[in-house]
């Protein structure tokens, strides 16, 4: 009898060891915030073969790497839907194949960003070049709004050429590159009417109801923003630089009453989206503070990152997110506007969440406490007690950024061979 009991125990232990689930990465003890699935609790997350395979209060299993996420927040990989990554060496070319744009991987992973959407740097004439140079050479997932101007953001007179807008050709290119193109962009056009917007909306319809993002350059006098939002844009279209206060453009907050204008609220009610698109001079606290105080939160938090903004007031995705946090958005609202909400705006529901079966794009963030200063391009400063920082980023099931070595064991990618 005794021998049978011993054999039973030994067999059970052998069976457990033999069939124990082994994961590639096991993230332990982090505070998971997953807006899509309504998760806001301390959970473990298991990753295998590039996918999320289990989420539970406690996962006890073998893993190649174990990540201690205690006292940290675990979120879906952040999505920046307004960026400029058409990096190249062509002079006098602004954000198209130029020195002013930046390659994504050096600026995304250290901010928990796993997906970027280029906001109109390439046009329908040069998207193939953009794919060859940027998309195909980036670990970051790179998507794009296709500029309705064929030359893209070449700058100057090129961006004002209505003859270079061809809705049919733009739609055909969008269909050809459907895995990468999520919509169309109007950028920097200056004119007396909304014709260029109408061309982009037409392209959106021809391409299968893709959204349009608008950054209208301006007009003197400014064109009424209510007309753009309510009469030219459709449900699902996007106003970027929503907290801008710039000459030539009407703003959404009345600068005298410091109240969000009624037409902006009506536009949101009708399904238009409002994106931060911070940029160099396209964000002012004079607009953002009263809007957020009223509960008019951005649908998407984004950077408009390029060489003109990255070292100025904007800095990076987490700096913009931290500003929204200290202005009055909750951490849960900030994460939603950086993950699941932008995923829905670009109609990519497979992104921005931590569902079992989803590709393992994950950010692990610290919420630092201290005295921090946040300023805008006008020099106006607000003080805050909190700041978001990235501890780790996982892209497609691979640790691509680990600030303080919280993975055990540490695996250094691309390490040099010993000589």
Write the layout of secondary structure elements.
Layout: H1 2-19, E1 22-34, E2 39-48, E3 51-56, E4 62-68, E5 73-76, E6 78-83, H2 105-108, E7 113-123, H3 127-133, E8 141-147, H4 167-176, E9 181-187, H5 195-206, E10 212-215, H6 225-232, E11 238-239, E12 253-254, E13 259-260, H7 262-269, E14 273-274, H8 285-293, H9 317-327, H10 331-336, H11 340-345, E15 362-375, E16 381-395, E17 398-402, E18 407-408
Parallel strand pairs: 1-4, 1-5, 6-7, 7-8, 8-9, 9-10, 10-11, 11-14
Antiparallel strand pairs: 1-2, 2-3, 4-18, 5-15, 12-13, 15-16, 16-17
Report the end-to-end length measured between terminal Cα atoms: 61 Å
Q: Spell out the helices and strands N to C.
A: HEEEEEEHEHEHEHEHEEEHEHHHHEEEE
Count of the separate structural domains: 2
Which residues form runs of ≥5 with pLDDT under 50?
Answer: 4-19
- The appropriate CATH architecture of the largest domain is Alpha-Beta Barrel
Biggest sheet, open or closed, and with what strands and sense? 9 strands, mixed
Mean pLDDT across residues: 94
Tally of extended strands?
18
Determine the fraction of residues in helical runs and give it as a percent range. Answer: 10-25%
Category from helices, strands and their pairing: alpha/beta
What name does the CATH topology of the largest domain carry?
TIM Barrel
CATH H-level homologous superfamily name of the largest domain: Metal-dependent hydrolases
CATH class of the largest domain: Alpha Beta
| Rg (C-alpha, Å) | 23 Å
Strand fraction? 25-35%
